[in-house]
Amino acid sequence: MIDLVWLIPALPLLGFSLLLLTGKRIGEPVAGYIATAMTGGSFLLALGVFFDLLSRDGEERQVTVKLFDWLKVGQLDVKVAALVDPLAITMVLFVTGIGTLIHLYAIGYMHGDARFSRFFTYLNLFIFSMLCLVLADNFVLMFLGWEGVGACSYLLISFWFEKESAASAGKKAFVTNRVGDFGLMVGMFIMFNGAGSLTYLGVFKVADAGGFTRNAATAAALMLFLGACGKSAQLPLYVWLPDAMEGPTPVSALIHAATMVTAGVYLMMRCFPLLLVADPIVFTIIAWVGGLTALFAATIAVAQDDIKKILAYSTISQLGYMFLAIGMHANAAAAFHMITHAFFKALMFLGAGSVIHGMHDEQDVKRMGNLRKWMPITFFTYLAGWLAIAGVPPLSGFWSKDEILLSAYEGGGLGVTGAKVLWVVGLLTALLTAYYMSRQVFLVFFGKERFLHSVGSGFAPMHAEADTAADEHHANGPVTPHESPWQMTVPLIVLAGLAVVGGAMNLPFTKSLERLAVWLEPSVGTHEFVSSGSTKFVLAIIATACGLVGIFVARMFWLQRPLDANLALEPALLKRAYGVDALYSNIFEKSGYALANLVATVFDGKLIEGVVNGTGSLVKLVGGNARKAQTGFVRNYALVIAAGAVALLTYALVRTL
Amino acid sequence: MLGQMLGQMVGAVKLVEVAEASNGFPLLSMLVIIPAVAAAILALVPRTREEIIRPFGIIATSIVGALSIYLFFQFDKNDPGFQFVSLHPWVKSIGASWHLGVDGISLLLVVLTGILFPIALLGPKEDHDIKQYTSWVLLLEAGVMGTFLSLDLFLFFVCFEVVLVPMYFLINGWGHGDRKTYSAMKFFLYTMFGSAFLLIATLALVYLNRDATGVTTFNVVELARNGSFTMGQGRWMFAAFALAFCIKVPVFPLHTWLPDAHTDAPTAGSVILAGVLLKMGTYGLLRFCLYLFPEASKWAAPVLLTLGVVGIIYGALAAIVQKDLKRLVAYSSVAHLGFIILGTFALTRQGLTGGVLQMVNHGISTPALFLLIGWIYERRHTREIAALKGLQKVAPVMAGVFTVVMLSSIGVPGLNGFAGEFIILIGTFISRPVWAIVAASGVILAAIYLLWAYQRSFHGEPDEASKGMADLNFRERLTIAPLLLLIVGMGVYPKPFLERIEPSVKELLSHMSGRVEGGESPLSSGEGYVSPAGENKPEAHEAEEGVHEGGHEEGAPEEGASE
User: Fold this and answer.
1) DSSP assignment, residue B52?
2) Per-residue pLDDT tens over the stretch A401-413
3) Pick from A404, A552, B2, B507: CA 20 to 30 A from residue B206's CA?
4) Distance from the B448 Cα atom to the nearest Cα atom in chain A, whole angstroms
5) Would you tell me which residues 148-177 of chain B have a C-beta closer than 8 angstroms to some C-beta of chain A?
6) What ipTM is given for this predicted complex?
């Protein structure tokens, strides 16, 4: 079965090719079902490979499957090959599993869009790229997937390219990620220079054997982390992710919540052996970047009004948790949270999409309210996501977040500077998370039906193009929210189930119940928690209490008081996301443009051209005087050439004689 | 010693003639002669018979293209020396000969030339003086082929210069804009300026060689083998050669002719200019500067590496603010060619191999961009980014093709641009880490200028002027399809290309380190570090190719041909 692992990415690639060539003719909804079937097929194959791996002993759960040579020059020998191991297959399973659900959902969501089949073409290409990313056995092929998902992200964010903001957001995502890619590339150079190989196993073997100098390993690790910060939207490169919400909501769920943005986390887990030989400061840096990002993004989320923006900042924040865990050497905890987060965040994005769909492209939570009455399935499934992310036991988010907080609490013992502070940061983030998610849920699903009054003013249709054909009632009149079609509600129900019970894959009570950690051990190593059972229990109580306080506070303000009374809770600074975007735009865009302008007009246009044309004029002047005997410019040159040749010849002859 | 060598040579030459006679078909000569003859035949066709002239040109160039592809598959990838050598006395009095040969370094450029010319004739539709136009293009092809195939410095110089004339007339006669005469002249003079130095250095080299050996010859292989000049002389001659080629590339700060020439050239002119003419410069650096003057190349490497890196950043920055699509792509060429310079003067196996591959990659992506821009211009009569809007909505196929080419140009893996860039950067990092890191930052800038230009011209709602614009028609799709196939094919499976380039690059490097006394790094560092793990394969690799290495200890390519 493992030999057939190449079929897993091959299916979506096939779907992509098929839809690229014939998508327009196939049209809606068949194109969507084909794409869904391809991803679903990959999921089934992945299950097969998973059980094959499971049937083997721990040591043998690492198989390299080679396909063909890719880049081979001298010692550089990059193959197209898959490294099938527990980490890779875990990633494959949740990418294809959630991917299939979101494909299905998109059939309903994209109904009526003029570029319906094009959407699924991109989506299948994305799945293919993502599978390359996680299955690759070397850094370069991983980078292919990495850039591939980036390109798909670009195409899908600017899918509704008629909108200026969507087009800009796509470009911003790509360019910001490129900054990270630069780091990733330099990291690869350093590793190749040190190890003469770019396969994971080759590099890590050299790392284990002490082949890297500490400086080289540290530099490589930090460079890779820079790449991870770009892809996984961490400080200071997170700015593209909120804008990425311009893409259709299934894209936000699939790419910008569940899968692609976790690539950075995956990379860091994968490179753990390299991190271990680097300076310990690397772990501290990762932990602090993660922790600060988590808190920073959570504070922004509390003041956002766009239903998707709230979720976007929440995603940045939750990704921060994962890096925090990696900084504490707790890879299994990071992976655990990555998976549960994929469940509940994809769920909430899809739920938000369902709301937007049902509300006819309304995204402002303050113009919603009491939707539980109109969209019961969406509401009940959303509840599961909300309680999971808020860390309410026994939902999935509680278990995974708890493990990360525990690892932070213990991190000092591993030499991470300021681990206890980060634990507090993590708790604070948990509190804020519960608060802003509750605020969102209360504003959307509870309270008054504010949309009955406010619709029609400042209404920004997201995909008006698409929906005018489909929804007759998309007009300026009062909106009648409606529940979404089955293609959309089924994925919601499945994901809600997973968000509720997902914690069961890794329960902290006994070693044998920590299934995920045990399973991932061959890939990411072990991490033993040292605290006693009672300490763990108390810590869990504290974390849960934080979540409950957050919910309670939100209830107090957003359920029991009128909206206008709460303006003080949303300072403009937070609404503007601390003005970082404006700051970046001033620093990088404006001064960058000024620099480019300087280069192009002053330097190139005046200086160099001045010298060139000056030389020309000089020659012309000289030529003009010499012209009395000559007829033209070019011939003058010939004369100069001949004279020069003679001169040098004479010189050469004299020298050598 | 000398007599022995001469004897060997004469023997080798005889062998070659025998080889070619038995082979029967002078493939390389045909690549040069067919387009030249076709141009001559066109002179006999009445100028009004455009319905004949166009197909004739396309067929003639297609035959050359087919032959060059045949050459690609007939090429022996295990032989690092010159193959299909054709050597005939030409101007006996000065020792010049008709000496053609192809190795891994020139092979792909020859094939690229063969493929691009029919595309350049098929793609854009010129509306006046088709006869002269087609003749000039054919003559241009003969010159370019000759440049890449010459193993005789005199023949090379002739071809290198011949290329100028048709290009000058193409820009001046079929170009756009008020400044086309200025641009054509600028192009001509700039290159002539460099050529003067090239000629002087060539003559100096030949005479120095004659003084040392008593033989007057322009044979590149012999000149390289003898290396009969002092260190100082070598450096001077290197500088002259390098100046000529750097203008052609163009290397910063000698690049200002390029944006003008591109902007004002007709589409076919831009396609050929970007696709192969610029490669004459980078090829010249590799073939002549490195090969003839190893010591000087190593000596000058830091300067050229720096100019390459500056070009990468500078070209990209300048591209960001360009208002004309063609000018933008022209500046992006300066950046891309900076990568090739970087790889060349990294003097490692990866750097050089990547450099050659990147010549081809740039020769595919950039012409594709120029074709697309040309088609936009044919429809809208403007290339101003500000005047275009929302083209993706009215021309989705064109937009899709543009996106793929753009991503290739940005260096997204899986497409061709990445393979070359990555190999170059890794090869450069081995010997010159700082340059490599600075150059790698160019990947950020490349994304900015292209994506921004794309956004402004293709995204958004189409304005009134753009609304009626037609998508690519069948002929245009047919024209661009081969380039798209190569963009994807070379990105996914560059092996057939790399394995043809690498042996010759390895040969060149061993020639160079043999020449440079001591042969210490970075010349010897093609594999110049030992992995701590000590489990790498180069030993086995080395042994496997050792047979060939032995055979080429003398660097005699003729032997390769006779095998």
Assistant:
1) H
2) 999 999 999 888 8
3) B507
4) 6
5) none
6) 0.88
